[in-house]
Specification:
The chain has two helices and seven strands; from the N terminus they run E-E-E-E-E-H-H-E-E. The protein is of the alpha+beta class and about 120 residues long. It has one domain. It starts with a strand and ends with a strand.
């Protein structure tokens, strides 16, 4: 299954996560000018500017959606209700579909509304 993982390019203004960590698009509030366009580590909660498409064959959709929701509860303070879980699962699925549409190894960025292939760095 293809997912997005943190990647350090050496040119970014923001890297607070662990390289290779599962990430999700997020609205960063970082003062470096990356506000609204970052990824957040699902495990660490740290932010990064770029992600790489990785194929993690050992990770299934259900476990991904579960850790995705747990991270949203932890990082955003949302309540763990059935309704919130339902929309979070839909969001997680859209992220997986976006990753699946790209070649493994593609470097991407989040512009605040969509994930796109990063400009040459």
């Amino acid at each position: 299954m293809k997912v997005f993982v943190a990647v350090r390019l050496g040119t970014e203004e923001l890297f607070e996560t662990v390289e290779g960590e599962l990430v999700r698009p997020a609205r960063s509030r970082h003062p470096t000018g990356t506000a609204g366009r970052a990824f957040t580590g699902i495990g660490s909660g740290g932010s990064c500017q770029y992600a790489r498409v990785a194929d993690l064959a050992h990770l299934g959709r259900t476990p991904f959606r579960s850790v995705f929701f747990d991270a949203l509860v932890r990082d955003n303070g949302i309540e763990a209700t059935n309704e919130n879980q339902r929309w979070a699962m839909e969001w997680a699925e859209r992220i997986l579909v976006a990753a699946d549409a790209l070649e493994e190894g593609t470097i991407v960025e989040y512009d605040g509304s969509r994930i796109r292939e990063a400009a040459a760095r």
